[in-house]
Amino acid sequence: MTIKEVEQQIIDEFSVFTDWLDKYEYLIELGKSLPLIDEKKKIDENLIRGCQSKVWLAADYVDGKIYFTADSDAIITKGIISLLIRVFSGRTPQEILDADLNFIKEIGLQDNLSPTRSNGLVSMIKQIKLYALAFSANK
Amino acid sequence: MELIKDVLDIRRNFPALEQSVNGKPLVYFDNGATSQKPRSVIELVNRMNSGINGNIHRAVHELSARSTEIYENSREEIRKFINAGSREEIIFTSGTTASVNLVANSFSQAFIGKGDAVLITEGEHHSNIVPWQMACERQGAELRVLPIDDYGCWRMEQLDSLLIDGKVKIASVAHVSNVLGVVNPVSTLIEICHKAGVPVLLDGAQGIIHLNVDVQKLDCDFYVFSGHKLFGPTGIGILYGKKDFLNAIPPWMGGGDMVGRVSFEKTTYAELPLKFEAGTPNFIGAAGLGEAIRFINNIDSEFVKEHERQLVERMMNGLSSVGSLIIYGTSDSKVPLFSFNVPGIHPTDMAMLMDKMGIALRSGMMCSEPLMDHFGVSGMLRASLTIYNTLEEVDYFIESLQKAIRMLS
């Protein structure tokens, strides 16, 4: 599937929720099921500090594709991270650089990405793109 | 005019409280951050902008005369509200932070030298830490910190030892903690400090809305607060200072309105209070603050006391009924402001879910990182209530809290 197709899949999944709390219930589930990050990667170099919650992000470059693992101390943030990983992990640097993130807005979570929330997610997306840029330059 | 004695009659004055957020009626429990504004304040600010907008203290024309009169009437309203001795002791600033910065700058220039010290407490808001840290760095002075205990109370028994060498030149402390809601023993502290010849600044950002503040009775040397936490507009605040101190410290900012006579060789400064009000002040904000105080004066003060007591009681009982909750600041002397944590659950997650249930809370460090360190946490959840909040809202809040905990467990 392309990034666009995965994004559409997520939009469809979220379209069944009419109540905000159901949507968040689902995000909490996603957060809980996010594969654990290797503890060795939960180091300060991988830490994206937000005012409210912390995010750890690590990237591995294997056979031309970038694989992300991440964690957060807040479970809803983790749920959103799991969506981002689903979209971005296992992609080529170019795919990541070309991607927009309209699906976040489509599913109504853009508030969580506004810089004022400072929960590390905005910086996380920036960091994902920076990894893509770095790996594409090193090709 | 008959005084308001009913919470629903109070609420009716606040249009912001009539709205729904995320499909639920708004329960606004973030009053410690800022309060909503009553209609009378909103209308006066509108009226000022639309019809009475003339710069104060400058021109002879009618609009200027009218806005100057409103501005100075506000000053008088505020003087009466905190029972200051004279209008010269009421300085308009942009808020609590600006007021603390003004004193930290001007007082330190006049009275703090190398080797001297400034006393604060472990429970302060960043706005009452950083300006003093900057002043101390500049003057080569030392910042001394009175610790708190695990109930959130000042360790008063350590005060003498911090003052004994005579190096402390000023103490700057919160009247009420913005995190713990604890009413600090400021009268005792002021008495001890004064015996040691140390003047005291009270940070009234949280105190002013919950307590009857009488600066003469408190005998504090400075008292600072913001308008927006007191049903007034943002961008306006007050510095009260005893006249002798305000005369003894230099102006902080230079500009128009704060001068006597200006020439390139020498400028003389205006008398109090204008000496500290350089430039065009937020005169519309000042007018709004005066109106906010008139609104408060129309509410029966005994009712306010009793209602806040009931809010504290209902919140404490409710929070205590939720198992495993850690409540910070459990002193008997408490305003309706509560910080807490649910072990294993991030406060931000809680705040996000509560928001979706229509409840506005604060989460995070609340600009009090040293206090977070004291309790060994990286954040807390805070509910801060005021006179327009109802007991029914408290019940809904507790129900929602339990629901959020179930979802996140």
In words, what does this structure look like?
- The complex is a heterodimer of chains A (139) and B (409).
- Chain A is globular, with a radius of gyration of 14 Å.
- Chain A is 50% helix and 14% strand.
- Chain A has one domain (3-137): Sufe protein. Chain: A (Alpha-Beta Complex), CATH 3.90.1010.
- Chain A contains six helices and three strands, in the order ααβββαααα.
- A three-stranded antiparallel β-sheet of chain A has the order 1-2-3.
- Chain A has helices at 3-15, 20-33, 75-88, 93-98, 102-106, 121-137; strands at 47-49, 54-62, 65-72.
- Chain A is of the alpha+beta class.
- In chain A, α1 runs antiparallel to α3 and α2 packs across α3.
- With 409 residues, chain B is an alpha/beta fold.
- Chain B folds into two domains: 7-30 and 299-408, Alpha-Beta Complex (Aspartate Aminotransferase, domain 1); 44-297, Type I PLP-dependent aspartate aminotransferase-like (Major domain) (Aspartate Aminotransferase, domain 2), CATH 3.40.640.
- Chain B has helices at 7-11, 39-51, 62-82, 96-111, 130-139, 159-163, 186-195, 215-218, 243-248, 283-297, 301-321, 347-356, 369-375, 391-408; strands spanning 20-21, 24-25, 27-28, 90-93, 117-121, 142-146, 168-174, 200-203, 222-226, 237-241, 259-262, 267-269, 326-328, 337-341, 359-360, 362-364, 380-384.
- In chain B, β7, α7 (186-195) and β8 form a beta-alpha-beta unit.
- In chain B, α2 packs antiparallel against α10 and α12 crosses α14.
- Chain B is globular, with a radius of gyration of 22 Å.
